[in-house]
Amino acid sequence: MSASLSTSLSHGLSGVTQAARALAREGAGALSFEHPWLLVVLAPVVGAIVYGALRDRRPPTLRLARGDDAALLPTGLGVRARRLARALASVAAVLCAVAVAQPVVPGEPDPALTEGIDIVVALDVSGSMRAADFRPQDRLFVAKDVIATHVLSRPRDRVGLVVFAGEAFTQTPLTHDRALVKTVLDGVRTGVIQDGTAIGDGLALAVARLETSKAKTKTVILLTDGDNNAGELAPETATELAKEIGVKVYPILVGRGGRVPFPDGVDIFGQPRFVTVEMPVNPALLKTIAQATGGAFFQATDKQSLETSFQKILESLDKSALDGSPPVRRRLPLSPLLLLPALAAFAAALLLRHTRASTVP
Hints:
Blueprint: H1 2-26, E1 32-33, H2 37-54, H3 67-71, H4 77-100, E2 103-109, E3 118-124, H5 139-150, E4 158-164, E5 168-175, H6 178-186, H7 199-209, E6 218-224, H8 235-244, E7 247-254, E8 258-266, E9 272-279, H9 283-293, E10 298-300, H10 303-322, E11 329-333, H11 335-353
Parallel strand pairs: 3-4, 3-6, 6-7, 7-10
Antiparallel strand pairs: 1-2, 2-11, 4-5, 8-9
């Protein structure tokens, strides 16, 4: 319990120190308020408090025949204590009013506050994604796992999901709702839509999801394991659409071409049975798409290389988002810096009002 309290106090003091340094560095001109309207609302109230505190309230005294002689009498210690207590109470009221309006000052540039990136993942769900050359299961299982681990762990980015085989469908639009995208992604499987590999349709639909995006960095991560052999739009046409609206495409060829193991039911003992199937690929097409849109091409032959591909893509996107952008600065609250002296002034006022000297006229 004491350790937790100590940690909280340490964080609090650190925040106050940072705010004080920022105010000293930036000057009063950089000061702004989260709720400036409260200053207007509270001004009459604080004014009344200050007026009431500073108004002279002397205790009853005997009248003297000669007023000019009375003026020559020294002010008593009790009177001075009461006046000081009223002044301190006024200072505390003003500081509290300003603190309630939540003044802030810009801190150091914070890369973590950089505007997020809009990413649409276009995922191939054709039958060939069941090829068993990836572990622990097949290509689609591993691709979904890596997407969830790397893309859905980025809270500042908006993510959308498009799936394609012989046709293409939007599964989720661009959203910050990671739970929604994860739920939908978990349910993605092969064999639901017409089979084939419509790379052009899948890419074009992913690009369309980004058409109204205002993000500086708009990206499609295209995962496929084959060559374009279905759909209505040619991949070249989809590539031109991406170029027109400034979308970078990062194609990832999942798996290797040639002969790969493919599931073929179970044997008489209930164990999975595999046959060797020829898998056509077209890395040249994917490289052309990447080069034309300013992206990069990757090939992954196992889970580790697929994770490495995602890491490199996301690192590249982060650098792109930072390049040429004005630094985003965290707003440091100054309220604690005002409340501490306000509390001290109020405590001192109470102490002065209850000392023996202040009760003597």
